[in-house]
Amino acid sequence: MTDSSDEEYLHTEWVPYSERPEWSDVTPLPQDDGPNPVVSIAYSPKFRETFDYMRAIIAKGEKSQRALELTTEALRQNPANYTVWQYRRDILRELKANLQDELDYLDEVIGQNAKNYQVWHHRRVIVEMMNCPKWELELTQNALDNDGNAKNYHAWQHRQWAIRTFNLYDDELDFVDRLICEDQRNNSAWNQRFFVLKHFGFTPEVIKREAEYAMDRIRVIKNNESPWNFLVGVLRQSESGKLDSLPEVVEFSEGLYNAGNRSPYLLAFLIDLYQEQALESKQEDNSIAQKVYALCEDMASKHDVIRRKYWQYVASHLKTQLSKQAEGND
Fold first, then answer.
1. What is the pTM of this model?
2. Could you say which DSSP state residue 167 is in?
3. Which of 79, 88, 140, 194 is deepest in the core (most CB within 10 A)?
4. Catalytic site positions
5. May I ask which residue range the UniProt record assigns to the signal sequence (predicted)?
């Protein structure tokens, strides 16, 4: 999908730089692939000429309005070219250009290249130059709301950078709650929730509230890895750092198991929970350890066969730890 400016560009006959009078003073600089290139890339004539002139401009160090326009043309053809983006920034600084115009330009470029690292990096530098994050949350929200981009790493990274750099945390929990309600498997939104909570601090009240938040969503989709990972992360922030720090979470997870649920994420949670308890009991052959061994066997043979050797290792490692503890107590 293209915007109006791209539509106009696509339907405008392109004039080679070699035929433009205003570029007659520039000698294009061809790409040097060496005498015997292993793989010769079949660049289009338009691409080759644009970048031949781009190399010439960089070589002579020209920072002018026409050079800026040339970078626009080059980036339209290859928006991932780091060298052109860097030179564009040098030109903007030299010309003391209107950076708001640059942000408007980037709105269009990001709309077409939302998963391009170089575009987002350039945006960050421009925002830093302006010291103004006014549009960044809206920009990233629009990028994430587009089809197929809800988990766009670059957009999330930019959003976290803007929030952290300019202290924009206040409304972020509401934003991620909306995303989680729309797609409870959106791991990026769960990660963002943890990022915000970590900033404000994990008090006992926050830990209890967020554990309930995760459990509520697990009740809806029990075989969903994201809230299970979030729940573990939240419990680890308690004073003890243990998974049984909230009795209601233990009751919840054991209740799911006793009701017949065999989600691998539930079983993995219980294995970690019982491992901690078994090691605390310091008894080599105790009933809690037996639960770990049985669950590991179920994971290895039925519910997570692809990681069979890992679960066998978990059971074996616990036996070794308990044996060493028992020897130390003799």
1. 0.88
2. T
3. 140
4. 115
5. none
